[in-house]
């Protein structure tokens, strides 16, 4: 572990890194490989750039919270380590096909895909897939390798090197952030296909078929039946061997029962789901409206639960082994609906942030983005930037806020880099602002050149600290929301869990040194979950997998005692490695500045009225954050 694939030569080798401690086969190992195998300053599109894809030692296990795969490379958007996670069945597909991790270097001469089957990895021609969306690509590769094959694919956006192109797995499950799809495109890599059982099972099936040994190179014609059997098993059983199956079964039973009494888990599991943004009006300042420029009432419609009727494609069974079903697939009729996997950021990013509240327009845009391979957060942020620039006379040909009819064409133009505007916006808002000049940078809501997520940090300054200081760039799910730990409106059941890592309740809008320390502690905890490929939406402190359940889960899978200290050590190492890489690639000049709008323009209405990120308080909290993580604050921001 991992397989090392050179696309230029077609050579595939396997390296044994099991003797190393503490990487768990996930992003920590990927970061070690990035530091070891690539030169400082290497362009993300250089053939020698390294792409890492892993289920790791836990991902793909049929248990709550263990359905994640990680995609990692130097980001063409931020210039530092870009890490994105895909939910769904792809991680189980990797493990079932006999791979925990892939490290990919080189550039293929022709568009190609990787096939993982029977514990072997091989490179195959994909020129006939050029220009196809992720759905058509997945369909074509499943027709070739079996209906049960699991596919991670890019669409036209990745082929055209859109800097925030995504990778989409199994139609609906995006690894969305930081442009990993463009890294695929730069390597002429259209997809990774996982089909067929691992070697021991292949030998058993080959014996039943009357052959003494499986072929050393997978028989592609035979893979369809084997892959179909593998997928059927993945739906109903664990494709990954675990040390203690009885403990896993007990944890599954516990989780299934606990969902009903856990507010967030019940919301995730229910209909229309926690990504649907349905029901009560949203407090002013909670989420971005018109590029974070509207600080009062949004004056945009919130859908009702009934508005999602007839738009559900799949609402259960998204992650093998996890009963929570939090990622649901929605799309209106008349579009490619299978790509409508709805993350919690999509509705605001493609809707309110653009001044649009037509649900069908938003759901269709989300599905189309996944088919084209576009990150909805960066696309929404970039389009909102362009709309504000147009409104202020800086981009005369730019789009207008609220123009729902123009949204589909804008999405197509960006994915294809079509025309001057499409090519400009394919670079992301920070680079577009530098091209436009004339003060346009004030309207690029970015940190490290990556668009900030749609949850407004002014009422929740810990989120703002996370956006600014997380070394990989701004991420919505890097840590829990401050409101969850507010002593008045928070989730009281999670306070004891948070206290175990030193995050005690405090008023959500309070920005002080303790906020900095609390944010660092939560970031370290969730970094540990990321390092192990454990789903944040199943885990402590706010979801049913408490710290004790998490440590029991890892122990049951690996057969080695795992503790809270181990989890926090992994979280710290991942953060340290990401920061060291960021410092190396930036020459010590880390961009940790939030957009100026956030400390200058306060929320003007509602319960968060007056909320703003005071610069002096933010700097004091930043110093405490650095002190908690043991980082040297002497970096140029």
From TrEMBL:
Ranges of residues in domain Aldehyde ferredoxin oxidoreductase N-terminal: 1-197
InterPro entries: Ald_Fedxn_OxRdtase_dom2, Ald_Fedxn_OxRdtase_dom3, Ald_Fedxn_OxRdtase_N, Ald_Fedxn_OxRdtase_N_sf, OxRdtase_Ald_Fedxn_C, Tungsten_al_ferr_oxy-like_C, W-dependent_AOR
SUPFAM superfamilies named among the record's database cross-references: Aldehyde ferredoxin oxidoreductase, C-terminal domains, Aldehyde ferredoxin oxidoreductase, N-terminal domain
Keywords: 4Fe-4S, Iron, Iron-sulfur, Metal-binding, Oxidoreductase
UniProt key word Ubl conjugation: no
Keyword Iron carried by entry: yes
Cofactor(s) this protein cannot do without: tungstopterin; [4Fe-4S] cluster
Family membership noted in the UniProt record: Belongs to the AOR/FOR family.
Name of this chain's protein: Aldehyde ferredoxin oxidoreductase N-terminal domain-containing protein
Organism per entry: Nonomuraea composti
